[in-house]
Amino acid sequence: MNRRKLVITTQSILNVSIFLWSLTDIFAYATFFGDFEITKIIAYAFGRIGLRVICILCMLIKQKKASELFKSLVIIALAEITNRNATTRIFIPIMYLLAVGKDVDDTKIIKTLLTANILAFSIVFFSSLIGIVPKTIYYASTGADRYVLGFRTANTGPIILFQIASAVWLLYRNSKFSYITAGFAFLISYFLCNSRTASILSLSLFLLEIFWWITINQKSKLLKKMVWKVMYGIGILASLVSILSIAIATKWIDASSLNELFSGRIFLMQKYFTYYGLTLWGQRVLTGAAAHQYGLSTLDNSYVYMLLSYGLVLFLLFIYYFIRVILTYRKEHKSQRLAVIIMYAIYGFSETVTIRFVYNYSLIFLKDVIWKSKKIYTGDVVNENSPY
Which of 36, 321, 357, 359 shows a CA-CA span of 20 to 30 A to 306? Predict the structure, then answer.
């Protein structure tokens, strides 16, 4: 078997593994199907064992240089050390996938996650309509029922819909289906699930798609350059959301006046930081019912959660490579990718989806700076000669 056929074969195996992990992970941990023990057993087999094994095998096949193999082993070691201490293992899938190397086709990975998300949402949604899983649950904080559509929380379904909509726009930018999916995501998020953060994000995506279409059809290069510089500036600000989160959590910045606006998240961030403090390699951070006995509840901030759960070392590496991705995509004019990263980065202030690969496919973009990939993504809006 020649080198090209071997790469294609390993990529196909990797795609199947990612698909099975994503699908079973959503069912086991994000829906009421997780109440069945067999669902969690299957998810454990595909996520904790199967994905690790497949990624290691693909890594050994793809990596031919000792320096690249060493880098892969460092990534895996870092994944195991930090995730061993944490309560959840959310960084295992993306870090093992990044360890496979630069030959990973991220376009195919995104398509695989898109397929798994569409299938998972469709099954859970229709199961809730026919009564297999709950369609609504009671929220004590509001004293009313909210639509969850078979998912554990009212935010989970909208989060998946946003990922579907943004992936469709990224992969099929000229398709009318991208407008439909973004509009559908907003309608479900706002009118049915009453998920404020997800609905704002989906509406922003829908408006961005319309604005994008208008802008790229303009002949004015000056307008295009101005738009690109504005978006790049927003991207730099978005990269600072992580620093802002830590500054608020440590009370370096007084943001108490914003607590009500963010549904109590500001005070919870500060309480969690005060209770747990910093570690180098991570620790067990309790959330939900298990944390109530300590006066805590839910930590809905990606950056504070990452810092406390996975440690200072992984947090600083993540921020470093995250900023490098923004700078790289600015230089290479990968504008759609940059737009997606910006939206997820801002979303991370009020949810933990930014650091969860199952809900945030853009984490695969870290490959472009970790491995200094020169491959030009075919889904970009424009070529190298464009102001975008």
Answer: 36
